[in-house]
Amino acid sequence: MTATAPPALATLPLADDALVLSHRLGEWAGHAPVLEEEMALANIALDLLGQARALYAGLRDELGTEDEIAYLREERTFLNCQLVEQPNGDFAHTIVRQLFFSTYQQPLYAQLAPKLPLAEKAVSETAYHRDHAEQWTVRLGDGTEESHARMQRAANALWRFTGELFQPVEGLDLRWQELEGEWAASITEVFGRAGLDLPEGQRSGAWTAGAGRQGLHTEPFGPMIAEMQHLHRSHPGATW
Amino acid sequence: MSADWPLWEVFVRSRRGLSHTHAGSLHAPDAQMALRNARDLYTRRSEGVSLWVVPSREITASSPDEKDPFFEPAADKAYRHPTFYEVPDGVKNL
Known about the structure:
GO molecular function (chain A): phenylacetyl-CoA 1,2-epoxidase activity
Distance between the termini of chain A: 37 Å
CATH superfamily of one domain in chain B: Phenylacetic acid degradation B
Strand content of chain B: 15-25%
Distance between the termini of chain B: 57 Å
Oligomer: heterodimer
Order of helices and strands of chain A: HHHHHHHHHH
Number of strands of chain A: 0
Strand order of the largest sheet of chain B: 2-1-3
CATH topology of chain A: Ferritin
Order of helices and strands of chain B: EEHEH
Helix content of chain B: 10-25%
CATH class of chain A: Mainly Alpha
Enzyme class (chain A): oxidoreductase
Radius of gyration of chain A: 17 Å
Largest sheet of chain A: none
Number of strands of chain B: 3
CATH superfamily of chain A: Ferritin, core subunit, four-helix bundle
Largest sheet of chain B: 3 strands, antiparallel
CATH class of one domain in chain B: Alpha Beta
EC number (chain A): 1.14.13.149
Protein name (chain A): Phenylacetate-CoA oxygenase subunit PaaC
Pfam families (chain A): PaaA_PaaC
Structural class of chain B: alpha+beta
Low-confidence stretches of chain A: none
């Protein structure tokens, strides 16, 4: 631990990413195409939830308990990127979202590993998430005409949410350009193996997404956190 | 959908030095995905250090109907078991 740890609040966007994506993946429970895949998605969701909890625990002095942070904040105070709040859609949408995000998250955690107690375990967890998404991307992209079309449609739809990932987060001293370069190279390689075309639209700039880190979210996010928070808000202090 | 996927038998080695033990079975589209599904289904609680997956159709099993001819003869030949022989007193380290 030679490097200086980042200020606690700087990790809030990363924690919110993990919580929100965990919740989205949890929505697959009972709905996944096969039992084996349901377990895989639930495992990934639980890994992400663990990462979120570890980071929230470090914010106790600033924001309160883990439950308060997750369940009692308003939409505008969540700093997750807009990519992770996008609805599950079909299985292709979920896999492409997962590919775009874990290809970003794993090298990011790797850069943070010397500075955060969370990150080392999280690097190997996210390496598995990334592998899972890549395996499916190649199989579905290079699968049937139907699966290929669905993957391409999902990639085109989610592309405009990927530029936001590389907006520097205040307080996190990371090599953002290097992260973006690695990400683009990896996605290009996986898409090549999957026989998918890289979407042509811009990833950042006008007409793309990108204010999640400032607390602005897309329309599906409100209903999602309403569902996520309603139990805690209806029965404050309820325990299992 | 899983009806189209072949069945795989999963073997888990719980730690170094032990042999792989049959843990169960699962459906997967191919061997690589079977390994990953096996990881999620059978090694979530640090049960293993190594995994094998084998297509179930590749396993040839003995038939329950042939149980007697297959396994019965061993029982009546007591000299096949080590307990048949008396160990001489002078033998050490046995």
